[in-house]
Design a protein that fits this description.
Blueprint (H helix, E strand, L loop, with lengths): L13 E4 L5 H12 L3 E6 L3 H14 L4 E5 L7 H13 L4 E4 L14 H29 L2 E5 L12 H21 L4 E7 L11 H9 L9 H13 L8 E4 L6
Parallel strand pairs: 1-2, 1-4, 2-3, 4-5, 5-6, 6-7
Helix pairs in contact: 1-7, 3-4, 4-5
Length: about 250
């Protein structure tokens, strides 16, 4: 059961979140919806999860959620998604660039399609979606949150393309904060081990990763969602910053 945020701080605000149907994206959507926001949930292939989440939100508060399917690297997707948010809710206040491709690309076996996919989803899409959303966000003195990664600064072995893409997104976050201020704040969240990649993952590797954190435990998607909520409602003087939610792994 979702408990409504006490002060309902995001009442009537509209959030567009990419990759919002599952995993961390869904928890961020829940946190902002519970604080009063209307949510447009983007998905690519997770139609059933997106429909289920939107139904969950609309049962709590009628006409507070909608879904939108798109391949984010398509040239027309950013404008169409922003238009959908405006048509559905009449305004756009918060953009969360959460969708991401993630897989290994060992040097010697990197392909152009892998490059296009990883750079496209992790860097190109956030840039062009932010650009498309900027006029509407400017009108509301809005916010962009980019989901980055601790591996933007500390490269992950066998993942050079992903690490490069997230490093680019970190710089894009700071660049957009400078370009879009003073009306629009732009910040990033860099999660550590809060949710393991889908598929099999060696338990010894999980233990090794956790041991590298200062807190000696993994976090949760809710930890990331609470950080997004903080940036959305309690941080009007924070922009151009990347908050690590990693249990101290980055140190």
């Amino acid at each position: 059961m979702v408990v409504m945020n006490d002060n309902f701080a995001l009442r009537d605000r509209t959030v567009l979140i990419t990759g919002g149907a599952r995993r961390v994206g869904a928890e961020i959507a829940r946190a902002l919806h519970a604080a009063g926001a209307n949510v447009l949930i983007h998905y690519r292939t997770s139609a059933a999860a997106a429909i289920s989440l939107a139904d969950e939100f609309n049962r709590i508060r009628a006409h507070s959620a909608a879904i939108f399917a798109a391949q984010l690297t398509d040239a027309e997707a950013p404008e169409k998604m922003v238009d959908a948010a405006l048509l559905e809710f009449g305004r756009l206040d918060i953009l969360i660039n959460n969708a991401s491709s993630f897989y290994a690309t060992p040097v010697g076996r990197i392909t152009l399609p892998q490059w296009d996919d990883l750079i496209g989803s992790n860097l190109k899409a956030p840039l062009f979606l932010s650009q498309a959303a900027a006029p509407s966000l400017r009108a509301q003195r809005g916010l962009i949150i980019n989901m980055i990664d601790i591996h933007a600064l500390r490269p992950l072995r066998a993942h050079p393309v992903y690490s490069v893409a997230k490093a680019g997104l970190a710089m894009l976050t700071r660049s957009l904060a400078r370009e879009l201020g003073p009306e629009i704040r732009v910040n990033g969240i860099a999660p550590g081990p809060v949710l393991w990649p889908e598929g099999d993952m060696n338990e010894a590797l999980k233990a090794e990763i956790i041991d590298k954190t200062a807190l000696k435990r993994h976090g949760t998607p809710q930890d990331v969602a609470r950080t997004a909520l903080f940036l959305a409602k309690d941080a009007p003087y924070i922009t151009g910053q990347i908050i690590a939610v990693d249990g101290g792994r980055s140190i």
